[in-house]
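As noted in the main text, all predictions were made from sequence alone. Below is one such record, for Beta-lactamase-related domain-containing protein.
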Amino acid sequence: MAMLRGLAWVLLPAVCGALAPQALQSALAEVAKKKSAEYNCSISIAVRTSEGSAQAAAGITNFEAGQKALATDLYPWGSVTKMFTAASIMKLVAAGAFRLDDEIAPLVDTVLKKMAAKDPKQNFTSVEELWGANAAKTTLRELLGMTTGKQWESFMNAAQAFSELGGRMT
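Prediction:
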């Protein structure tokens, strides 16, 4: 089933590009309506093609007020961004931009330095400053596979603080 979902994401742009704008709008509205009912949730879908864009929404975003979902509503992406990040990284690996066994620090530190230069409130310029020495040695392969096996200092400090406040992390 996961393979079919992945295939749907790959084929979606081609299918959407083949539909006339009004047909695309209708198709999106139907998908939003069905999935909202199936999963008892609100949903917003948008597609942009060379022919234009279409969007649709269905469901309720505020049950107390009876507020219906709008295509302009914002939703947190949560863990789904991992798929897009991994796919983008693999495209760059295939293009030779870097290797899976490269450490993340040299790749990320330049971005963090640029961010810090633009925002004086940012008090870090490297992966090591942000998450500790263990994190700086993490490879792309480990990060994508979630197999670093390393305890990142900032996480451990947060876990210790949480525990000291009477919380419990399992």
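Strands lie at 43-49, 52-58, 60-62, 67-68. Residues 81-164 form one domain. These features were considered when defining construct boundaries for the mutagenesis experiments described in Section 2.9.
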